[in-house]
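Support request from a user on the community tier.

User writes: "When I paste my structure tokens into the form, the page sometimes reloads and wipes my input. The last time it worked, I copied everything first. Here is what I submitted, just in case something in the input itself triggers the reload:"
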């Protein structure tokens, strides 16, 4: 196999993930791999909520341009940052085994959400986290918090918040697992579709590479994340939508749990649904996702989606 260049963002997390895939390609495929670091629009815009300036695609587009121009052949993404439908000419060809999918409670004074005093200040810019926090603790004040993981932790340490909520996977990957005071239960703070998983993207015409990378896919993660992403796609999936979707395998059954909040009125009740099945291929996994989306619709999801 020829040399593979991986296009990657330059945040510490993105570089860790790219290095991780580089090592895997070297070990498992005997490939020669180099990294090409790039800055994306999503990395530059730190002052506004991402949902207001264009959403998930912002972290991905520059990397795709590098693939298009053949300056790189592979892009490694946190799957949750990848839009539900890739632009024409690109394909998601492998999904690696998932890290811890849970959200983590991080604080210097408090061990868990339950310990936070009335009216405490929590930092997060994720609408999905906001609506679930409001549901668990209506008294909390929640303020925006953007930037890469190190920046967010620094803002916490400078005293800007009583606690913040971050993906456990990112913290663990960067060796910051000791900052996690507790993890939220999966059914209390349902993760975002794809959280904790890595997705590999190539040009759709890269047949040999597609075939080689496909062998790296973790099948249970692939099926679970297909189901999750199908929910989001069905409901019009953008990150301006406070949607949570997480599927996990329990005794051979894939259990998919979803929640949708109102984007402008986070205090309105969360819509929730749970479905399960035994999908063995992508189509069946996606069908499970559609079933969950349908269950949300029967509860009035349209009313929550209209304004987004
Ligand atoms: N939204 C940014 C982002 N993209 C991926 C991760 C963490 C790693 C992952 O979930 O795979 C994070 C940080 C966070 O949400 O706290």
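"...and here is what came back when it finally went through:"
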């Amino acid at each position: 196999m020829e040399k593979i260049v991986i296009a990657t963002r330059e945040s510490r997390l993105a570089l860790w993930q790219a290095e991780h895939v580089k090592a895997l390609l070297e070990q498992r495929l005997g490939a020669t791999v180099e990294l090409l670091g790039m800055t994306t629009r999503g990395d530059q815009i730190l002052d506004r909520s991402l949902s207001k300036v264009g959403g998930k695609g912002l972290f991905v587009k520059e990397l795709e341009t590098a693939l298009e121009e053949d300056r790189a052949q592979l892009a490694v993404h946190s799957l949750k940052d990848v839009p539900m439908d890739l632009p024409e000419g690109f394909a998601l060809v492998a999904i690696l085994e998932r890290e811890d999918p849970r959200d983590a409670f991080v604080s210097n004074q408090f061990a868990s959400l339950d310990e936070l005093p009335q009216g405490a200040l929590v930092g997060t810019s994720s609408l999905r986290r906001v609506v679930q926090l409001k549901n668990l603790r209506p008294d909390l004040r929640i303020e925006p918090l953007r930037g890469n993981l190190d920046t967010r932790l620094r803002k916490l340490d400078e005293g800007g918040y009583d606690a913040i909520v971050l993906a456990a996977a990112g913290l663990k990957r960067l060796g910051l697992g000791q900052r996690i005071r507790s993890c939220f239960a999966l059914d209390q703070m349902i993760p975002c579709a794809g959280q904790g998983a890595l997705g590999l993207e190539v040009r759709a015409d890269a047949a040999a590479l597609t075939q080689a990378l496909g062998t790296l896919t973790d099948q249970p993660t692939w099926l679970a994340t297909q189901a999750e992403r199908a929910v989001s796609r069905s409901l019009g999936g953008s990150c301006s939508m406070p949607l949570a979707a997480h599927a996990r395998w329990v005794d051979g059954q894939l259990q998919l749990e979803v929640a949708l909040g109102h984007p402008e009125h986070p205090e309105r009740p969360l819509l929730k649904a749970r479905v399960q099945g035994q999908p063995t291929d992508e189509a069946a996994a996606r069908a499970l996702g559609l079933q969950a989306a349908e269950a949300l619709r029967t509860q009035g999801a349209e009313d929550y989606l209209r304004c987004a």
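Agent notes: The reload is a front-end session timeout and is unrelated to the input. The pocket of PBG is lined by residues 78, 80-81, 166-167, 169-170, 195-196 (CB under 6 Å). The chain is about 35% helix and 20% strand. Escalated to web team.
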